[in-house]
Design brief:
The chain has about 475 residues and is an alpha/beta fold. It has four domains: about 5-120, Beta-Lactamase, CATH 3.30.450.20; about 125-130 and about 330-405, Orthogonal Bundle (Helicase, Ruva Protein, domain 3); about 160-325, Rossmann fold (3-Layer(aba) Sandwich), CATH 3.40.50; about 415-465, Arc Repressor Mutant, subunit A. It has 22 helices and 14 strands. A hairpin with a 4-residue loop joins strand 1 and strand 2 (about 35-40). Helix 9 (about 160-175) packs across helix 10 (about 190-200). The protein is flat.
Length: about 475
């Protein structure tokens, strides 16, 4: 055996061991019989054991002993397929656990690789989130159960508002059919996320998802990017030619972001492709046929561009088969607390921090208008996490623009003086109850008697969202 290869293999093994140990997620590896072979530090912490206590032991025995309530490994071995479950451990952790089988040449499972992601912090935040949401969400029929919400979040979609539920229902309906979808909405509202969501829940999910921003590439290069070119098609062309993005997306989805920025000449070529599915690369003498679904998006009013003769009417009709309008973040404030905590978890993982956020900071963000929409919220959370590290984020830690925007009254001419007064009274009750933790202490702080504060708690339905002690 070549000794240099042996050294290389040993080094690779060391690197893999270091990666497993450094993983923020828990990793649990079992053999094809369900016997534990290896766990990392995170998995040991989640389960409240040491590696020495479990290595070599059947995973079924550990479940019987109550180390955790269920094991993904056992369900993988039973179903012979990958599986994702919610797992609770004796140490008090709630885990999103994915088990993946690794098959041998004989078709039998040799190993089961299990990845555990801690979601217990999200569970601990639930009461705080619901407290903030109670002030901002519109009451209505919720169309997604807990499993549905986990499914959405696994695809990067964070939504709790009725406005976004309607959008997601439209996306689900559109995904079932091979038709063009036109996403409209302000910049940063989440058009790219929803385009990818439609692709992932469609029958094209296993094929490529290709995104191109039509406004970021010069017009002179856009044709080559979309349709490709043959070798020697023009001066400076690659000697072997270039495959266009339509060809790269064959069988899958091409997402044309900011499609309103396409030149009229390119609009004609795109329309021709939508009509017959054929592409004529630059310098080619024969058209090529590709199977691509088009999802387009624009933050401009394409109908108005058609009127101004800046966008071809025929192309607009072809793209606008299923129009879906994404509301700006200011029109779906019920989503804000959930997005905050989603980005907080993402940033904590990214920067190895443990930042938390106080209700007063969530409240300020919920009152802000977010001209930059979801993208702006993500940037704000990332900025304050970098600044605060593992400390708690308070209202005063937010950017001045947010605090000044949050201090302004909400622009809603339909609100009466009575509604404004009730909103202020309700918020004051929430803050005092949170601070003092009981009705009697809150009543004393506000100068009210016990019966008055009980009546107001019932009036504003605070019992639904707060644990109010009857002391």
């Amino acid at each position: 055996m070549d000794s240099s290869k042996l050294v290389s293999t040993n080094e690779l093994h060391k690197y893999l061991e270091a990666i497993i140990e450094a993983s923020f997620d828990g990793i649990w590896i079992c053999d094809g019989e369900g016997k534990t072979l290896q766990i990392n530090r995170a998995a040991a912490r989640f389960s409240g054991v040491t590696a020495e206590q479990v290595v070599g032991r059947p995973i079924g025995d550990l479940v019987k002993e109550g180390l955790f309530n269920r094991a993904a490994t056992l369900e993988v071995l039973e179903k012979q397929a990958p599986i994702t479950i919610i797992q609770e451990t004796r140490a008090g952790y709630r885990l999103l656990t994915t088990g993946t089988p690794i098959f041998g040449k004989d078709g039998k499972i040799e190993l089961v690789f299990t990845n555990e992601r801690d979601i217990s912090e999200l569970a601990r935040m639930k009461t705080q989130i619901e407290s903030s949401v109670s002030r901002w969400r519109n009451r209505g029929h919720v169309t997604f159960d807990e499993d549905g919400l986990l499914f959405l979040e696994s695809h990067g979609v964070i939504a709790r508002s009725d406005e976004m539920y309607r959008v997601l229902e439209a996306c689900q309906r559109a995904a079932k059919f091979d038709i063009s979808v036109l996403l409209s909405g302000e910049s940063g509202a989440g058009k790219s996320v929803l385009a990818k969501f439609v692709h992932r829940i469609s029958k094209r999910a296993a094929k490529p998802f290709i995104r191109i921003n039509c406004g970021s590439i010069p017009e002179t290069l856009m044709e080559a990017e979309l349709f490709g070119y043959e070798r020697g098609a023009f001066t400076g062309a690659l000697s072997e030619g270039k495959k266009g993005l339509i060809e790269a997306a064959d069988g899958g989805t091409l997402f044309l972001d900011e499609v309103g920025e396409l030149s009229l000449a390119l609009q004609v070529k795109l329309l021709a492709f939508l009509d017959d599915g054929e592409v004529m690369p630059i310098g080619a003498t024969r058209a090529r046929k590709f199977d691509v679904r088009i999802i387009a998006a624009s933050n401009r009013d394409l109908a108005q561009l058609v009127t101004q003769r800046q966008f071809r009417e025929e192309l607009w009709f072809r793209l606008n088969v299923v129009p879906i309008e994404i509301p700006p973040l200011r029109k779906r404030p019920a989503d804000i607390p959930y997005l905050i905590h989603h980005f907080l978890v993402v940033c904590n993982r990214k920067f190895a921090t443990a930042a938390t956020i106080h209700a007063d900071a969530i409240d300020a963000l919920c009152q802000y208008s977010f001209p930059g929409n979801v993208r702006e919220l993500r940037n704000i959370v990332e900025r304050v996490v970098v600044t605060k590290g593992s400390e708690q984020i308070r209202r005063n830690d937010l950017p001045r623009s947010v605090l000044e925007g949050a201090s302004l009254p909400v622009k809603n001419s339909a609100r009466s003086l009575k509604e404004v007064k009730e909103s202020i009274e309700r918020q004051m009750l929430i803050e005092v109850l949170n601070e003092h933790g009981s009705q009697s202490k809150a009543a004393e702080a506000l100068g009210l008697d016990q019966s008055s504060i009980s009546r107001k708690i019932r009036k504003y339905k605070l019992r639904e969202h707060y644990i109010v002690h009857q002391s």
